[in-house]
């Protein structure tokens, strides 16, 4: 061992703020010493020498912890550690008591020694021998009450100075005997009180000790679930002493003992109380001796809280007690008895749900004083804590309140409950700004939401006859309270208060979202009649455009709040099929115009600062979402449709005009507007297909110009939107519709052509723009696909004409477009970029998944597509582009399976895969996976091609055999999927089946060898990929597979008995899970890896 | 639904309403009769600020099996969602949602949502679940970022 001084030096280095040497090395060295057999001796020396610093002493206590953990099983060493810890605790506590200021830093070491003793307390009482008869009386089997031991020993330490001299001598037999006697001594209540009356520090140390023990027991409980014995000991002994200690403190008797007249209480009292409540709450459902009652503590805490005032302690104690109560109400409210909770109710609300005759309103007066204090001093955080505490409390009785209000269960409770609700409504309507100044309204959202939920779930037979009326009255008031609360005016105030505090803004947003959820719950009760109507009438009560200037902003805030909620209710309805809503909207002539005014206000608002920017975004969001929601209404009443569309386009235009100054704000608004336009166009396509279409095309024409500053998202969304409208423009026949299609495609083609005709560097610069235009064609094409759920009678009547028209394509839309795409892909600026290939493939394949009878202007022929693929596969960058051609080939093969010959399939397969296999595909697991997946898809959709293809025996089977043992998970997954599908495919014809059987007959032996070899060499997580294949082989070729296995397995590894066992078990196993287990066992046994 | 499952889901709802990360939402859906379906939730995950995902709030459906919390919930993004670790069906490939991997009954809804938010911008290279996003992510970052940004706009708040 190093010398003591050397160790002390290392400890000082370890705790030094700027160590000169490597701390990790020092730590490792010290840890080794702590764990050594000299650890205990070292700890004693470090703790005893008065010359050593408190850091060194703390390290001594820590060394005991290490030794305790090492010697938990050895009784002798354990007792040495127990007695030494006690001894040092007494001595150092004595030192601390003598002068708490000078020895303040010693408290850390004292706490560590206490923590060691709590570990000893747990271990002794949880040990096997606890509660058992044992002849060895020296063995301490239980330690009932460390507080008693502490009181007894510390009293002896203080009263006998002669003995006191020996408190450093750990091997003194007198001391040892003294300690033995103290372990389970009895300390009556009077002696305990007398002890703490001697000095406030005695009281403090006793509280700290019991707090440390109970926190450690709680932690121990959370780590080990079978803890029981220690809880019994705690309940029967330590709990009693601690409750006595806490109660004399909380009732201020200790203060009287020490002549303290001022209302004050050491924080230790509250910390200790919290720790004990936490412990009792954690263990009350698992303790074998029942729950420990804390009613007296709670009662005393409530009394104490109500004594706390601004004059006495500036409500310091009130805050501490409320923190404890908040913790109880949040986590385990029933820990407090019903009677006590009733008292709390009176304090918090000044009313009781049970009776209003016997309540002491002075207690509530105290609460009002406290709230007043918090509000006056702008103590927002404390007010928030109080709100959380009160609302958590209210939630406990939510169901009871609901029953009393709405049911016949409590015959006399209704009047009181209605009074009670009034108080709650007043509290919700706390007259300050939510989030910024008050939290009652914020937290009460959950209460009202739950009350509504509970009401909806009540059985009808228990409801009061007037319950509906009561519900409507209450919940309408709730909505009326929240409407001004969620106003954006409050958000503005928040930002003006502190523009950098984003968390408050976020909290306000969350509050608004919570109000939305609540409103949806309330709708179940209030319905359209009492909620949606109210909001719609509120929004459309008067013409917002002609309000006097000074009243305008206030009106807009109100309209926005109502729109925000109304939209959340109406967006879930199909307005075109809701006569009620249609009727209300028809009656409110200002409703839609006010929504449009709101939108326009937002658009015109200059985003000069953060508050205005957020306001602008929020009102545009609310109003544009409402316009989108109203689309269903416009299908029944298109009076305002034109104004809406015009306003939306004006908004879109303004986004592109504002330049870069407010780009972030404008980008967000642009997305909102274009999404709304898209919704309106989709739903109102029929209404818009008349007079509006030309207007749309004209807007589109200007927005796709290179000079327009709109985003690519907006352009493609607009292309799709126009597509929706043109899609239903069928009443005048195909030619009429085609003219519009041609107009759009021409517009785009011209613009792309202009770029293609420009110099090469310009072409490169405009790549994103060209890609965007090409994407517009794809989006436009998607919109022209008819909705499966909607059948247009006009289209059905003329289906054949449309079909013939697009077959002939008299305007040559397809060929012109194909020529443009080809021109594009011939340019070196574009053909190396996979994005262009991707969109080109999307355009060419657009109609490949459509049923044959569906006409579409992008229905390219098989020849067009194959020529395109064959022409550009050699030109483009295949590493990134091949997947898009595979996508196209897959769709093409499925769509044209009736026309495609096997030779053509083989040719295409050769040109697309085999040709690039050696140099590219076989080296790239992603491409390999895609190729195999293509084969699997063809096996599924058109197996005949593959079974009759020359590529199957000549390329696919040999390669897929080779790939069975692979290091790439995705290759393994794909190739095993291929083989499984190949041998087990329900879509085979008789001839296909015979071909497959013949091929397996030829390749079966190798297939089994390769599969088992791959399985043997793969990692555990990939074993399942092989399971289905092996099961398939056993099921389809039972006899052959058995022989193939018997032949193959010895070549893989030389473990004949394992192989034999495997084959036998495999053939008597049913079900995939069982087969997987058999295969797993074989793999584990062969590889000699452990099972887990 | 077992009482343990019900109790835990009520607890999850309470916890979430009291404390959830900003910008996220999660709530039980309603059954046809208007009552709450605690076993099926709707949620929204905002993309992290400063990432290509930030513009969007991505919708999730969370279905809790009867055996919850012994078994994990099934969490799905919309079908066709573009992300390397999201299957074409929308099922998310995340170890904490896998019973055979890192699922533990103590995992909360908040942890799941934060885990998914984290996954959005840091895909797991060991668990590709869809080909297009995976390929673009590993071979063509520009294409990947372009598509993610487009998707973010599609799911913009």
UniProtKB/TrEMBL annotation, chain A:
It is found in: Nucleus. One of its GO terms (cellular component) is cytoplasm. SUPFAM superfamilies: ARM repeat. The keyword Secreted does not apply. The keyword Transport applies. Keywords: Nucleus, Transport. One of its GO terms (biological process) is protein import into nucleus. Belongs to the importin beta family. PANTHER family: IMPORTIN-13, TRANSPORTIN 3 AND IMPORTIN 13. This is Importin N-terminal domain-containing protein. It comes from Maudiozyma exigua.
TrEMBL record, chain B:
The keyword Coiled coil does not apply. The active site is at 93 (glycyl thioester intermediate). One of its GO terms (biological process) is protein sumoylation. It is found in: Nucleus. Pathway: Protein modification; protein sumoylation. One of its GO terms (molecular function) is SUMO transferase activity. Residues 4-157 form the UBC core domain. Keywords: ATP-binding, Nucleotide-binding, Nucleus, Transferase, Ubl conjugation pathway. GO terms for cellular component: chromosome; nucleus. Pfam families: UQ_con (PF00179). PANTHER family: UBIQUITIN-CONJUGATING ENZYME E2. Belongs to the ubiquitin-conjugating enzyme family. This is SUMO-conjugating enzyme UBC9. It comes from Maudiozyma exigua (Yeast). The lineage of its organism: Eukaryota, Fungi, Dikarya, Ascomycota, Saccharomycotina.
């Amino acid at each position: 061992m190093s010398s003591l001084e050397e160790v002390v030096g290392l400890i000082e280095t370890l705790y030094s703020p700027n160590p000169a040497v490597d701390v990790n090395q020092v730590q490792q060295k010290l840890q080794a010493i702590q764990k050594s057999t000299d650890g205990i001796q070292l700890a004693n020396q470090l703790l005893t020498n008065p010359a050593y610093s408190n850091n060194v002493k703390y390290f001594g206590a820590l060394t005991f912890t290490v030794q305790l953990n090492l010697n938990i099983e050895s009784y002798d060493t354990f007792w040495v550690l127990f007695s030494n810890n006690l001894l040092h605790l007494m001595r150092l506590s004595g030192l601390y008591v003598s002068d708490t200021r000078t020895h303040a830093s010693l408290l850390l070491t004292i706490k560590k020694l206490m923590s060691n003793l709590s570990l000893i307390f747990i271990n002794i009482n949880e040990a096997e021998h606890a509660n058992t008869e044992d002849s060895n009386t020296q063995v301490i089997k239980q330690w009932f009450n460390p507080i008693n031991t502490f009181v007894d020993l510390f009293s002896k330490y203080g009263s006998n100075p002669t003995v006191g001299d020996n408190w450093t001598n750990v091997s003194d037999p007198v001391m040892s005997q003294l300690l033995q006697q103290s372990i389970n001594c009895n300390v009556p209540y009077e002696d305990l009180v007398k002890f703490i009356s001697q000095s406030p520090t005695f009281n403090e140390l006793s509280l700290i000790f019991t707090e440390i023990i109970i926190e450690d027991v709680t932690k121990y409980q959370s780590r080990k679930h079978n803890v029981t014995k220690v809880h019994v000991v705690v309940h029967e002994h330590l709990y009693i002493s601690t409750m006595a200690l806490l109660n004399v403190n909380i009732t201020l008797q200790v203060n009287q003992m020490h002549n303290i007249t001022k209302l004050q209480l050491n924080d230790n009292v509250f910390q200790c109380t919290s720790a004990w409540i936490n412990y009792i709450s954690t263990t009350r459902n698992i303790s074998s001796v029942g729950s420990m009652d804390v009613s007296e503590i709670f009662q005393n805490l409530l009394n104490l809280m109500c004594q706390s005032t601004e004059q006495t302690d500036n409500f310091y104690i009130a805050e501490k007690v409320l923190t404890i109560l908040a913790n109880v109400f949040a986590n385990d409210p029933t820990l407090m008895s019903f009677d006590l909770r009733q008292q709390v109710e009176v304090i918090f609300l000044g009313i009781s749900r049970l009776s209003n005759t016997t309540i002491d309103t002075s207690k509530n007066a105290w609460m009002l004083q406290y709230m007043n204090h918090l509000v006056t001093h702008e103590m927002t955080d404390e007010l928030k804590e109080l709100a959380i505490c009160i609302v958590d409390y209210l939630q406990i009785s939510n169901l009871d309140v609901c029953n009393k209000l709405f049911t016949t269960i409590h015959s006399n409770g209704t009047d009181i409950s209605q009074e009670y609700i009034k108080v709650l409504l007043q509290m919700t309507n706390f007259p300050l700004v939510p989030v910024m100044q008050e939290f009652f309204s914020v937290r009460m959202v959950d209460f009202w939401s739950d009350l509504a939920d509970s009401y909806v779930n009540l059985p009808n037979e228990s409801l009061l006859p007037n319950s509906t009326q009561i519900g409507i009255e209450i919940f309408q008031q709730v909505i009326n309270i929240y409407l001004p609360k969620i106003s954006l005016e409050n958000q503005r105030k928040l930002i003006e208060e502190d523009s950098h505090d984003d968390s408050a803004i976020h909290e306000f947003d969350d509050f608004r979202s919570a109000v939305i959820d609540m409103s949806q719950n309330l709708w179940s009760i209030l319905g359209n009649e009492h909620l949606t109507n109210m909001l719609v009438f509120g929004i459309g009560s008067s013409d917002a455009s002609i309000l006097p200037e000074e009243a305008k902003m206030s009106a807009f805030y109100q309209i926005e709040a109502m729109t925000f909620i109304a939209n959340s209710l109406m967006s879930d309805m199909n307005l075109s099929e809701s006569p009620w809503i249609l009727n209300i909207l028809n009656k409110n002539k200002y409703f839609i115009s006010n929504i449009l005014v709101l939108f326009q206000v937002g658009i015109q608002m200059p985003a000069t600062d953060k508050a205005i920017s957020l306001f602008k975004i929020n009102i545009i969001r609310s109003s544009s979402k409402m316009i989108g929601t109203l689309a269903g209404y416009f299908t029944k009443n298109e009076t305002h449709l034109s104004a809406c569309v015009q306003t939306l386009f004006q908004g879109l235009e303004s986004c592109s005009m504002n330049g870069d100054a407010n780009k972030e704000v404008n980008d967000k608004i642009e997305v909102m507007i274009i999404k709304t336009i898209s919704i309106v166009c989709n739903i109102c396509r029929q209404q818009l297909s008349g007079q509006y279409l030309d207007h749309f095309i004209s807007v589109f024409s200007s927005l796709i110009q290179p000079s327009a500053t709109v985003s690519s998202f907006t352009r493609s969304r607009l292309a799709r939107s126009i597509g929706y409208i043109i899609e239903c423009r069928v009443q005048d026949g195909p030619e009429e519709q085609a003219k519009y299609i041609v107009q759009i495609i021409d517009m785009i083609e011209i613009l792309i052509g202009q770029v293609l005709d420009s110099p090469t560097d310009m072409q490169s610069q405009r790549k994103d723009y060209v890609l965007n235009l090409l994407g517009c064609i794809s989006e436009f094409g998607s919109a022209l696909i008819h909705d499966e759920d909607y059948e247009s009678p006009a289209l059905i009547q003329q289906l054949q004409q449309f079909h013939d028209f697009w077959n002939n394509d008299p305007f040559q839309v397809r060929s012109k477009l194909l020529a443009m795409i080809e021109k594009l892909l011939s340019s070196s600026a574009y053909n190396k970029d996979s994005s262009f290939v991707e969109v080109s493939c999307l355009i060419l394949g657009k109609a490949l998944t459509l049923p044959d009878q569906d006409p579409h202007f992008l229905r390219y022929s098989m020849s067009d597509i194959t020529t395109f693929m064959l022409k550009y596969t050699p030109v483009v960058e295949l590493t990134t582009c091949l997947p898009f051609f595979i996508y196209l080939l897959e769709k093409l093969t499925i769509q044209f399976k009736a026309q495609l010959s096997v030779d053509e399939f083989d040719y295409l397969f050769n040109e697309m895969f085999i040709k690039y296999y050696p140099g590219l595909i076989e080296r790239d697991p992603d491409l390999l996976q895609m190729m195999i997946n293509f084969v699997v898809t063809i096996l599924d959709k058109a197996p005949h091609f593959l079974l009759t293809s020359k590529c199957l025996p000549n390329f696919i089977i040999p390669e897929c055999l080779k790939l069975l043992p692979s290091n790439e998970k995705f290759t393994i997954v794909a190739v095993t999927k291929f083989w499984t599908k190949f041998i087990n495919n329900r879509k085979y014809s008789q001839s296909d089946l015979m071909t497959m059987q013949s091929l397996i007959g030829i390749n079966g032996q190798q297939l089994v060898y390769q599969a088992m070899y791959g399985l043997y060499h793969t990692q555990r997580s990939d074993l399942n990929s092989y399971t289905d294949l092996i099961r398939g082989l056993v099921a389809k070729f039972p006899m052959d597979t058995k022989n193939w296995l018997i032949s193959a397995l010895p070549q893989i590894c030389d473990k004949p008995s394992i192989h034999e066992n495997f084959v036998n078990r495999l053939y008597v196993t049913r079900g995939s899970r069982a087969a997987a287990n058999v295969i797993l066992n074989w793999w584990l046994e062969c590889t000699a890896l452990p099972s887990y | 639904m077992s009482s343990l499952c019900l109790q835990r889901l009520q607890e999850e709802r309470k916890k979430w309403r009291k404390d959830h990360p900003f910008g996220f939402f999660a709530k039980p859906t309603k059954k046809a009769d208007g009552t709450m379906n605690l076993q099926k939730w709707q949620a929204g995950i905002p993309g992290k600020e400063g990432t290509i995902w930030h513009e969007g709030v991505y919708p999730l459906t969370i279905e809790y099996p009867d055996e919850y919390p012994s078994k994990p919930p099934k969490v799905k993004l919309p079908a066709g969602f573009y992300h390397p670790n999201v299957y074409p069906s929308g099922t998310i490939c995340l170890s904490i949602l896998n019973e055979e991997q890192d699922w533990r009954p103590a995992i909360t809804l908040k942890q799941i949502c934060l885990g998914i938010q984290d996954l959005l911008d840091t895909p797991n290279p060991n668990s590709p679940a869809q080909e297009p996003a995976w390929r673009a992510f590993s071979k063509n970052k520009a294409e990947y970022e372009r598509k993610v940004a487009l998707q973010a706009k599609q799911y913009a708040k």
